[in-house]
Fold this sequence. Notes:
It contains five helices and no strands. It is an all-alpha fold. It has one domain.
Amino acid sequence: MGEPQASYALVRMGDIAVPKLSEALLHEPDGYKRVKIVLCLSRIGGPKTRQALKRALRFEKEKAVREHIEFALYGRSA
Length: 78
């Protein structure tokens, strides 16, 4: 299963997509979709992305999503 074209488009948009992705990460009820958002953010990279992921980590309750955020931030799961 490959990445959807929309994910590639968001990554190509870069920093301009980070604020909307950050908000979606905080408000999306579906954990699977939050993981996809984390993957997009991690592929964009940069300081705004790290800030968004750190913010989301403070509020994320689902273990699998937290692990993906931690991996994106620190290269490992806690």
